[in-house]
Amino acid sequence: MPQADPETVRLQKVLATAGVGSRRACEDLIFRRRVTVNGRIAQLGDKVNPGTDEIQVDGQRVVTDTKMVYLAMNKPRGVVSSMDDDKGRNELADFLGTFEQRIFHVGRLDADSEGLLLLTNDGALAHKLMHPSFGVAKTYLAEVAGPLPRNVGRQLLAGVELEDGFARVDTFRLVDTLGKTAQIEVTLHEGRKHIVRRMLDAVGHPVSRLIRTAVGPIRLGDMRPGGFRHLSNAEIGALFKAVGD
Asked: Does the active-site annotation cover 58?
């Protein structure tokens, strides 16, 4: 008689532990054929390994491995994107406290910039989020010297030539004008160093403040500077979907 895998657990219990819903609600999801395990439609009574099996509900991946960590942080201005800065500057670890797992930041924000930074111990997802071939968009709110001529948006959408090559934004929106300062929102897939600052410099409107407000489907929201939160299952699933997983 084959030995039962000691690592397997009933599927509805794994889903409930992951926060999908109550155990009874998860049983209903399975009964309605809305749950798949490794691409196969699940059935009531199935057992899974939460550390290795890929489980999806309505086509969206559910992270069931309790060792995985996915965080969103509002990085304050003046803090370097490092968990262990060898120069003794203010760093991310100063705000995050202690985690059992070793977590790392997904990409960077320069010290003078602020806003949304994702952190995780999921190296495969982090790689895909950072790699330009997966095309995960990032949105920024920039304060620039005003007034802002109408052609600035057209220039950025058409693209500008920088010292390391051509760059353009995907979207441009004038948010507000405050005296000699204008607030604009840009979205782009570029990940080159200081790319937003360099593009706005190139069109004659240097940045005085830069805030990243979104990475793919994850938004900064009203998190206080220095604050962080765990991503919801829906947000984690949306990140996997954004990179094609």
From this structure: no
